């Protein structure tokens, strides 16, 4: 059974920033490949939600319900609640997740 999923505004901001960086630095073809990899990662999570592991930065937060999978050089941070997959954040693996989340939350206010 595939879980329903929702890409939250925080993840959309991360995806937009990632797309801008990749297109500027590497071009549209690289973005298309990256986007396809991200879509594949989300499809895998929908089928096997327990396959991800708890991100170090979020250990102990929300009873360990946040998980992540890697997709190339990117992280997909998600949570499953009531049989729905919520994609919270998509970002480069080298980004400081806590600083990024703070900046995104302030941007959404």
Strand order, sheet with most strands = 1-4-3-2
In the CATH scheme, what's the topology name? Answer: YaeB-like fold
Q: What is the makeup of the main sheet?
A: 4 strands, mixed
SSE order, one letter for each helix or strand = EHHEEEH
Kindly state the percentage of residues in helix.
Answer: 40-55%
Assigned CATH superfamily:
RelE-like
Please provide a written account of the structure:
It is built from 3 helices and 4 strands; from the N terminus they run E-H-H-E-E-E-H. It is α+β, with helices and mostly antiparallel strands. It has one domain: RelE-like (YaeB-like fold), CATH 3.30.2310. Helix 1 packs antiparallel against helix 2 and helix 1 packs across helix 3 (97-108). The chain is globular, with a radius of gyration of 14 Å.
């Amino acid at each position: 059974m595939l879980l329903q999923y929702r890409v939250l505004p925080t993840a959309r901001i991360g995806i937009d920033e990632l797309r801008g960086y990749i297109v500027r630095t590497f071009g549209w073809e690289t973005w298309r490949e990256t986007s396809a990899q991200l879509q594949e990662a989300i499809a895998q999570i929908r089928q096997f939600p327990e396959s991800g592991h708890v991100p170090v930065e979020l250990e102990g937060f929300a009873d360990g319900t946040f998980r992540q999978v890697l997709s190339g050089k990117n992280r997909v941070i998600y949570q499953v609640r009531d049989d729905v997959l919520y994609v919270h954040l998509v970002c480069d693996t080298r980004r400081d997740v806590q600083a990024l989340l703070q900046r995104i939350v302030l941007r959404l206010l």
